[in-house]
Amino acid sequence: MLVGCSCIPHAHLTVLNAAEHRLPAHVEQISVVTQSGPTDLALQRSVVRGFVAAIERDDSVTAIPSSRSDLEPRAICAAEGTDAVLMLTRLQTRWATHLTEEGQAHLARRVAVVQGDWTLYDAQGTPLDEAVDSFTAGTWDGQAGSPGTAKEALPADQDTVDELAFSLGVAYAKRITSSVEDVRRPYFVRGDPRLAAAHLPVRSGDWQRAEGLWREVANDPGASARARSRARHNLALAHEVHGNFAQAIREASLAFALHPTERVQRYVDALEARSAWHRRLRFPVVDDWE
Q: What is the pLDDT of residues 209-249, one digit of tens each?
């Protein structure tokens, strides 16, 4: 749905990303153990919950939280009938709160980091994967009329690190399983009448007509550099939707050369990252336009 004529419409792409580290085909059940020392047990449980929740999205693998941290990986697998064991061997948290003043307003910002080490073993105790210094980080802002009330507007320290600990578990699950991601991509309808005219063909699925209009603008020496850049950006999006990543990167790079903006540079970076993923996992893009 397009809300307001001044908004940039977006394409919604559903993307399947390849696992960074592929599990052996026989691994269907994973025991999850924390051996991270005397850190907060609630924080350790948050990490495990994040991993289990993310793994459940992959029908081929099941994660089982385990309390047998006193056993070796081979013994854990034997006792629980699992095919592998994932050990969180280190967990560390850091956070800080900074206060600044802007005019009459006082701003509080909390920065937090949760860092951990993972090792994945098979049923024979052989390491399958190791991720050292994995981390998640976040910032939270509060604003009020005094430093004290600005700090009170922030969530509790424990809540922030719990949130990041959960995300740490999710991040490792994404490392070893394929993950589905919803991606929003803007496309331009302003700057040239032909960009506006392409909006309805896109909405109706008439890609040939939309791309023809965008190409007219891109190749029109009388159009402004900004309009031609936007047309190239839209052509890049069309190529991305069709799975032609090399062409998409080429068009997006031309868009940046014509009218360099941070938005277009981010799109080039995103396309290069998607292209790298796609080389490892061929999967069609499903698109849903608003």
A: 999 999 999 999 999 999 999 999 999 999 988 888 889 99
* Strand ordering across the sheet containing 179-186: 179-186, 10-17, 286-289
In degrees to the nearest 10, what's the CA dihedral of 276, 262, 231, 253?
-40
Q: Report how far residue 61's alpha carbon sits from residue 23's, in angstroms, rounded to the nearest whole number.
A: 9
Structure tokens at 155: 């969530």
Give residue 126's domain range: 24-90+116-136+155-175
How much is the pTM? Answer: 0.63
**Using CB atoms within 10 A of its CB, is residue 33 exposed (0-12), middle (13-18) or buried (19+)?**
buried
Q: How far is CA 73 from the centre of its chain?
A: 31
The answer to whether 93 and 161 have CB atoms below 8 angstroms apart is: yes
For residue 165, the domain's CATH number is 3.40.50
User: How buried is 43 (Cβ within 10 angstroms: 0-12 exposed, 13-18 middle, 19+ buried)?
Assistant: buried
Which segments of 82-235 are extended strands (E)? Answer: 84-102, 105-122, 127-144, 179-186
Residues with Cβ within 8 Å of 251's Cβ and at least 6 positions away in sequence, in order, are 232, 233, 235, 236, 239
